[in-house]
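Milestone M4 deliverable, item 7.
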Amino acid sequence: MVSSAATIEALNVGKRAIPVDPTDPFWSNYGPTKGRHVVVDMDPQMITNPMWPNPATKWVNVKAARNDKEIAVRLQWSDGVRDDIMVRSQQYKDQAALMFPVKAGSEPPFTMGSEGERVNIWQWKATWDKEGAGRAGNEGMQDMEDHYSNMAMGSAGYYMYEPDGNLLLKGALKPDMTGSKDERGKSGVHTGGAGEIATRSTFVDFGMGKNEGVYNPGRATHNILSDATMRRSPVEDLNAEGFSTLTTQANQDVDGKGNWSNDRWAVVFKRALKTDDANDAQFTGNSMPMAIAIWNGSNKERNGQKAITAWNTLKY
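Output delivered:
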């Protein structure tokens, strides 16, 4: 059973800036969007395997706003646990997504579109938000030592040396170097790996640490899941033409930010009304179909195991 479709009307604020911070007074009951929220019921994903009959999220509070250049949607939903760390296989992250048809005036199957009926998906990830996506670069990415605070790094206990390899890490630190990482990078300084361990003057590997490049082939192949420098924000800009076709875009155009407080997530998605990317939904006319999906990490939700809606209508 699919819940009734909702209509969300975006407030037109003219030339006023729309904040991406979900805690900004703009989005509160004291700002211009007061009283403009719509409660949208969430449904279980029971269309394709693995089905998910009991998702944790039952409803989501939706607001929207636009100005002369941009459109933004704010989601808020209950979630008693903040799941924004995922460095072990037993961990699952909180996520939320909006979906729009790419072709103006069309309404593809809400099952992530179908062949020849492409959809544009904006997926916010709590882990990317925690890592400062769009601001912190790869240094902000979480790794094993973020979960295991007493993990030995460079001496005693369990230790794995970095091998020599063809992937050279620009700007890496060596014992006798000074200056910032950026300064070292500009000077063309690289590290060539651990080298001969027996000839070392120290057992501390100054090339080892968070997100070691030699052990990160995803970064070498420019995979956005491994390389945070490719992320514009905590929101990934994607396309799909049906289940199992989700693909990241070459151009990341969506801004966003999340905040967890009082057992609730609030997330803002924001993008230009029109872009030059043929794979993007273009907000021309005055309305657009919009579907919503939410994943609860503590409920082990991932991939197709999620709460969903069918197409709603976003008016702007």
